[in-house]
Write a structure and sequence with these properties.
The complex is a heterodimer of chains A (400) and B (524). In chain A, strands 3-2-1-5-8 form a 5-stranded mixed β-sheet. Chain A has a 5-stranded mixed β-sheet with strand order 4-10-9-6-7. Helices cover 43% and strands 15% of the residues of chain A. Chain A is built from 13 helices and 10 strands. Chain A is elongated, with a radius of gyration of 28 Å. Chain B is an all-alpha fold and 524 residues long. In chain B, 67% of the residues lie in helices and 0% in strands. In chain B, helix 4 packs parallel to helix 6. The longest helix of chain B has 36 residues. Chain B is globular. The chains are: A alpha+beta (400), B mainly alpha (524). Chains A and B meet through helix 1, helix 2, helix 3, helix 4 and strand 7 of A and helix 4, helix 10, helix 11, helix 12 and helix 13 of B.
Chain lengths: 400, 524
């Protein structure tokens, strides 16, 4: 740690005492318990949690009570004479049988709930959830569209080391995304979870649990929200550097609003397929596009650089940094890098297929030909790389 | 000086200085080496925990990069588990098992030397990765693939270090089993052994059964990374979840490896200071054996979220709940040992009592975690962090501290400073609760574990937790000072040391001479 860091640490510790006194006033939440949640299952889980908690409390009162009584009364300083007994078969049988009975009493309702949680039959809709380092992709299987969901930009700026932005000024700090998952109220939503790189876990506490998203496998999880609202959660399985920064946000809408939202999504898709104008490219973030085959805008350097910068900052900036300096050696610099200034085909290959065994993901499945062409063009001409190469969507398509 | 020691001094030509420690085959020297090593690792691992708690002091990233934060959580866990807790218990076993069963030394003294000296090598390999440009391992101590396969140059160092730690543990365990089985004093039947010896005998079997499993798992990781196999890579037909099954088949017994010897320590300390024999000795032995057996059939309760079949989830939920029964028997027996005793509260007793209270709290949260539907909420949150720190810090670590205060006069020949010992106890006992109790709350409220930054709603409890952690951390310097000053001098300890102490270790002089029980004592 640098001196600067140590000074800051000392200052932070010196601030601890007054902060402890005033903190409750500033950002009081003090939530101490599991949320009841908004699904029948989450409420059952909450009930089980409280039941086992109360059982533990009762046992604690009995055991700790006996222990404290003994500690107070059976002291040498009070002249207590040690008794001689060293076993009692009767007592030992009693305190073996009673816990077994309590456990059986707990196991029955727990098994009952578990059986219902695992019943994914009769769902009203299915959404495929794919986890990436470090964002989610939601595909509405029946409707045929999908989009990526990443940490919202202002949160992303605030969470950088020494950003100078006070997290308290940002509502729902770290629990906001650019594109939330949207589902209708009252529907049994079945999630099909998988991952593209490492294991992640999809968790919204208000829906009563979490499930791992595992590369190469499909897991199921379902929830049936009963109240409209915005529900927040996070990735719960360590998935690398930005594990703490891939929130889950779900908007539960009344049926009519959901249908309207759905209409917008599918309409947007046909529009993109028909003709892509410069405005729609700017409006629709790269992450929301599906395969865009026909490009009507003229593919030139200015256009590629402008789009490429936005896409680079959103997709690559977390690791390679907005200024292209990277965080060597784990996340190499783009500025002056042999890849970004060398052979174009090799560069395109890294962008499309990733580097297996490292944190460099394959962006081929995540982004369209045009998006990737823009990003690679930007990387080859920004940060003083100045190669003058204009990469075209065809070159990306060829590398797939 | 006793006659036994005096008559045997003449054939004792051991080298001096550093060579004495490098070449020693004496169980007391090796015990001391293990204990000093583990105390050092406790401080190193603890300072990493303080980096973690400093970053989590308030929301936002102030001190470290998220990647380095992950290195700290990973290294903290590896160092505490394999470097601090396990070697401390092996050190206690080395010192005390021969003294408690009336044996002159460990059965395999050269193996003993080697099993210790492997450890500093293993931790040098692991620790040097912090200096690598690509950093130390950062995928968590559980090393789940595919994430762990993204580790940079540190990867082979991690795997090799884990292999060495495993070899060291297996060698130590073999030595302990052979010693206990073959070198007990005449008349000491198995059911006359002190409970610390019993718990270690069972722990040693656990070690031999599970450390090779861990070695196999990490070797498969190594070949997946460098030799093109696909044990854990779905793209090649493998299964990432299979690693978790193999890891936790090691990992759950490992949990008991870290707690059973502490049960043994507490079962020695409480009768001494209650001046009353241990209640239900036989059932304590059977309970320990049952816990060890059950530890092999509960592993997947660490994995309720991976998508197991319903029948699997039900089986692992029921088997896990069953562990509460023998564990409960142990707690009830300790309370019954205190009952109608004549108690005094010297430092070892204070640590043992705090152990019973706080380990039981960790047991309660463990029982809650066993309820599979609720575990889907608890899993991978700070509730789990609070749970396993309650069983490992005021559990295993307090057990070790109780043992150190209890036997320190026997090792050094001096009484430690009781006032400072009690101060160390109260500072530790209060701050450990300030640190870990609020973590139950943030976990239940929805804070995942292993994150460097968090939503502002969790800010208050995290701040309290960090303050507690710093008090706990710096209190341990007092522990170091008490041990150091006790080794240097102090009031002369008697042979028996404690009024209520019973057992062979209290029949030899304090400090215990270099060679003890050259002529076996006879147990009636």
């Amino acid at each position: 740690m640098s001196n600067n860091r140590i000074r800051k640490l000392v200052a932070a510790l010196a601030a601890a005492l007054p902060a402890l006194v005033f903190a409750p006033l500033a950002k009081a939440d003090w939530a101490v318990n599991m949320p009841k949640g908004v699904t029948a299952i989450s409420q059952e889980v909450y009930g089980l949690h409280m039941l086992i908690f109360i059982v533990c409390c009762i046992i604690a009162v009995v055991v700790f009570g006996a222990m404290i009584y003994s500690l107070l009364r059976h002291r040498k300083s009070l002249g207590a004479e040690p008794a001689k007994f060293s076993h009692s078969t009767k007592a030992e049988i009693v305190w073996t049988i009673i816990p077994i009975l309590i456990l059986v009493g707990m196991a029955v309702p727990a098994a009952d709930t578990l059986i219902r949680m695992e019943d994914t039959r009769g769902s009203d809709m299915s959404i495929k959830v794919t986890a990436y380092q470090w964002k989610w992709r939601y595909d509405y299987i029946d409707e045929g569209f999908g989009f990526f969901s990443s940490l919202a930009p202002e949160h992303n700026r605030a969470r950088q080391l020494d950003s100078g932005i006070d997290p308290a000024t940002i509502p729902n700090y770290l629990l906001e995304v650019d594109h939330p998952l949207v589902v209708p109220v009252g529907a049994k939503v079945r999630l099909l979870l998988t991952a593209s790189d490492v294991i992640h876990a999809w968790w919204v506490p208000d829906f009563g649990g979490k499930k791992d998203a595992i590369p190469g496998f499909v897991n199921e999880f379902w929830f049936k929200p009963e109240t409209p609202g915005i529900y927040r959660g996070q990735c719960a399985e360590l998935c690398g550097r930005d594990h703490g920064f891939m929130p889950v946000v779900v908007h539960v809408l009344p049926e009519d609003e959901y249908q309207a939202w759905l209409g917008d999504q599918t309409a947007g898709l046909t529009f993109q397929d028909a003709a892509m104008t410069e405005e729609t490219v700017a409006m629709v973030p790269a992450t929301a596009t599906t395969a865009v085959e026909e490009v009507t805008v003229e593919w030139n350097m200015d256009y590629a650089m402008a789009t490429g910068e936005k896409l680079y900052n959103a997709n690559c900036g977390a690791c390679h940094q907005i200024n292209g300096a990277g965080m060597p050696p784990t996340f190499p610099a783009i500025a002056g890098s042999p890849v970004a200034t060398g052979d174009v085909a090799a560069h395109v290959d890294v962008a499309v297929n990733g580097r297996p065994g490292t944190a460099m993901a394959a962006f081929g499945p995540q982004l369209s030909d045009e998006d990737l062409a823009a990003i690679v063009t930007y990387q080859r001409n920004a940060f003083g790389n100045d190669t003058g190469d204009l990469v075209t969507p065809d070159q990306i398509a060829a590398a797939r | 000086m006793s006659t036994a020691a005096a008559t045997h001094e003449h054939h004792d030509h051991h080298p001096t200085g550093i060579m004495r420690w490098l070449t020693t085959t004496n169980h007391k020297d090796i015990g001391t080496l293990y204990l000093v090593f583990s105390l050092t690792m406790f401080l190193v691992g603890g300072s990493m925990a303080l980096v973690i708690r400093a970053e989590l002091f308030q929301p936002g990233l102030q001190l470290v990069d998220p990647g380095f934060f992950n290195q700290m959580t990973t290294m903290h866990a590896l160092i505490m588990v394999f470097g601090a807790i396990m070697p401390a218990f092996v050190g206690l076993a080395n010192w005390m098992v021969p003294l408690m069963i009336g044996a002159p030394d460990m059965a395999l003294p050269r193996l003993n030397n080697w099993s210790f000296w492997i450890l500093p090598m293993a931790f040098s390999l692991l620790g040097m990765t912090l200096l690598f440009p690509s950093g130390a391992p950062a995928a968590g101590w559980t090393m789940y693939p595919p994430l762990v396969l993204q580790t940079g140059d540190a990867f082979p160092f991690l795997i090799f270090a884990v292999h060495l730690m495993g070899i060291s543990s297996v060698l130590g365990a073999i030595n302990i089993i052979v010693t206990i089985m073959n070198m007990r004093a005449p008349g000491m039947g198995l059911l006359k052994m002190p409970l610390f010896v019993w718990t270690w005998l069972i722990t040693a079997y656990l070690l031999i059964l599970v450390m090779p499993v861990l070695a196999g798992a990490v070797t498969m990781l190594l070949t997946d990374k460098y030799f093109g196999t696909s044990f854990f890579q779905a793209a090649g037909g493998g299964d990432p979840v299979m690693f978790q099954h193999i890891f936790w088949f090691f990992g759950h017994p490992e949990v008991y490896i870290m707690i059973l010897p502490a049960f043994g320590v507490v079962s020695q300390v409480i009768p001494t200071f209650a001046r009353k024999p241990l209640f239900g000795y036989d059932s304590m032995v059977y309970a320990t054996a049952s816990i060890a057996f059950l530890s092999f059939i509960v592993w997947a309760h660490h994995m309720f979220t991976v998508g197991m079949p319903l029948a699997g989830q039900l089986f692992f939920m029921f088997s896990t709940m069953l562990i509460a029964v023998p564990t409960g028997v142990k707690v009830f027996n300790w309370v019954a040992t205190m009952w109608k005793g004549s108690m005094t509260f010297e430092t070892p007793m204070l640590f043992a009592l705090a152990f019973v209270f706080l380990f039981t709290i960790g047991g309660f949260s463990g029982l809650m975690l066993a309820i599979a539907p609720a575990d889907l909420q608890y899993h991978d949150t700070y509730f789990v962090v609070a749970h396993f720190h309650y069983v490992l810090v005021p559990g295993a670590a307090f057990g070790i501290m109780a043992a150190v205060y209890y036997w320190l006069p026997k090792w050094t020949g001096h009484m430690y400073n009781e006032k400072l010992g009690k101060l160390h106890f109260w500072l530790s006992a209060i701050s450990v609760n300030v640190t870990f109790f609020p973590q139950h709350f943030v976990g239940l409220a929805g804070m995942p574990r292993r994150i460097p930054d968090y939503s502002t709603q969790f800010a208050d409890f995290n701040m309290i937790s960090s303050v507690g952690a710093f008090v706990f951390g710096f209190s341990q310097l007092l522990f170091v000072y008490v041990i150091w000053s006790c080794a240097r001098g102090g009031q002369k300890a008697t042979d028996q040391v404690w009024e209520g102490a019973e057992g062979l270790e209290w029949t030899v002089p304090s400090p215990a001479p270099h060679h003890t029980f050259d002529t076996p004592p006879v147990i009636r």
